[in-house]
Design brief:
The chain contains nine helices and eight strands. By secondary structure, the protein is an alpha/beta fold. The longest helix is centred in the C-terminal third of the chain and has 17 residues.
């Protein structure tokens, strides 16, 4: 009997309460009817803007049911997109992992929509929900089966803290034979726009936005040119000092 694939929406957040307070409840409500096939993984990287308190006060029913899984860690004092995204994907329990930035909306029944895409297209596909407009906030909406995400080594943690990590992941997957499926349906990829400055504010990098982009792009192209498609040499993401909403440590990550 055919098994319908399940989805983990992987969310990372550090001091973005002003955004996730707009998106999280909406996303949970928009996918509630399909919660048996969907989970939301939220990893809070040491936020100091009362995010954990807000989760405790408003989402405990979702957490008890397993629909929302909240984790907290202070092991990433300065923001690094690749490390953060890798950590959230490692915590996912379902077959398909979808990066969902904390300022993104899934759209009404967005999880069901994605499940249908993964049923429609071959197993070795990556689904990209980018809307097509520069800086519209949807470029990071990448969906791929978790086993393939792990095999490719996730996002490259040797990059500068921000920029080009999404392009690099997709280009490495494509270089190993994955089929790129653009799905720019505006019903399912709306996002809150950020400025370039907001995007890099917690990185503590000395590089400006465009410089980070250039360095990471050059590094990615050199790796692919040399056939280095698998990132991180098997050691990536944060695996220790991660705690759930009850303060219990998480163990057993790959």
């Amino acid at each position: 009997m055919y098994k319908i694939p399940s989805i983990s929406f992987c969310i990372t957040c550090k001091n973005r309460f002003h955004q996730i307070s707009q998106t999280l409840r909406k996303n949970l409500d928009d996918n509630y009817l399909y919660r048996s096939l969907i989970e939301f993984i939220l990893v809070d990287f040491g936020s100091t803007d009362r995010l954990r308190e807000w989760i405790r006060n408003n989402f405990m029913e979702d957490i008890r049911s397993g629909y929302l899984k909240y984790y907290y860690t202070e092991a990433l004092p300065f923001w690094h997109a690749s490390v953060a995204k890798n950590t959230s994907h490692l915590l996912a329990n379902n077959e398909i992992t979808v990066n969902l930035d904390c300022d993104n909306y899934t759209g009404n029944f967005g999880g069901r929509f994605l499940i249908r895409q993964f049923i429609k297209y071959p197993v070795n596909c990556l689904i990209h929900q980018f809307g097509g407009l520069p800086y519209d906030g949807s470029f990071g909406r990448i969906g791929v089966r978790k086993k393939h995400f792990i095999e490719i080594g996730g996002y490259d943690e040797n990059f500068e803290p921000m920029l080009y990590q999404d392009e690099d992941l997709m280009n490495r997957l494509r270089a190993t034979g994955f089929i790129y499926i653009p799905v720019p349906d505006s019903r399912y990829n709306r996002a809150i726009r950020n400025t370039k400055e907001e995007g890099i504010v917690f990185t503590k990098s000395k590089l400006e936005w465009y410089e980070m982009y250039r360095v990471n792009k050059n590094r990615s192209e050199e790796n692919i040119k040399n056939g280095n498609f698998v990132a991180n040499c098997g050691n990536w993401g944060i695996k220790d000092n991660i705690y759930d909403i009850y303060g219990k440590g998480v163990s057993g990550l790959l």
